[in-house]
Design goal:
Shape: elongated
Order of helices and strands: HHHEEHHHEEEHEEEHHEEEEEEHHEH
Number of strands: 15
Structural class: alpha+beta
Strand order of the largest sheet: 2-1-5-4-3
Strand content: 25-35%
Amino acid sequence: MSKTNDEEHGGTRDEGPVDDQAQFSALLEDSAEDLYEHAPCGYLSTQLDGRIAKVNTTLLDWLGYQHRDLVGRKHFSDLLTVGGRLYHETHFAPMLRMQGEISGIALELKAADGTRLPVLVTSTVKTGSDGQPLLIRTTIFDARDRRAYETELLRARQEADRERDRLQVLATTLQKTLLPPTLVDVPGLDVSAYYHLASADEVGGDFYDLFPLASGTWGLFLGDVCGKGAAAAAVTSLARYTLRAAAVYDPDPAAVLSNLNTVLNHEYHGSDPRFCTVVFGLLIPEHLHGGFHITLASGGHPPALLMRADGTADFLPTPGGQLIGVLPNAHIATTTVHLAPGDTLLLHTDGLTEAHTNAAAGSGDRYGDDAFLDFGRALAPTTASDTITAVRGLLDTFGTGVDDDTAVLAVHVPRPPSDEHQ
């Protein structure tokens, strides 16, 4: 009988795999003591009073000690910093006695050279067959990389907080430049305004102003630019100064808004269109009958609220007015009204009527135009300052339900002194 190929070579086909398996088995048969001594973590066994009974080489290397320096001579707490010893005595040890195990505790160990080693400690009480505690086994993980990560994370967070504070200051400063520091004094008219910031982190797009024009007339406007942040602030600045310049050139309210529409549509007609809603008013004193004749032009803006001296209140509708800046030729809606002594006119942005009456309600429970009209009817007759005070109180009741900036501007014709006493 002929010999097989394997026999000719003095072996079997399985000889290679057998050798590999033998080598692998040899690796697994490392002594338990060697595994203990050179584990990737520190091991420590102590008596119940904390005296060190056994420690592995890994922990000794980390701390720079020899066996004879620690075993039977020091307690586990002796390896801790002052703060660590205090925590060990007041929290760590009592919890370990009560629960039999405590894990993942961040502490710092003192090395032989005085340096500190941040670690994560897990301790377990080993009990005998009768359930009585015998010793404490402690596993210690090197937390230097984790501590470095946490330190870097804290530094990054502190830097982010500082950056946020800087942005808030910048946003607040920029917001102030977009609003008049004080409203001008108009003879025969009381005025008051308020700006409610929904977020201190971003510049809002609401704006208002009141300024003199030629021949004893006055212009006022209030608007709301879409969006927030620097882009909205740029549009707000452009709108505010365009309105002022256009009113000087031609104070007709419809012409003023048409001019603004042309500017915005030309500047922002590309891939990033910007638009706003605006109401512009021309105030002309009526010396014969008293009060003011007001012409309002609106480009998609919420209607003004007129509160009469007789206690009635209603909106001044401007239907059909289109958003400013969207179309090359926007339709501008106008209305006129006589503001008699005792009357108050309130302009507002939609942050007020679109506020959530219940902040926890999410997208529902908007305040709405009907509730705002009821608010005006309950308030009339009133003054400019009382109106703004009431609106501020109303916004405060919404709390975080106000998710958009809100600007309000009130103008009031005072009654003659003789009428005030009647």
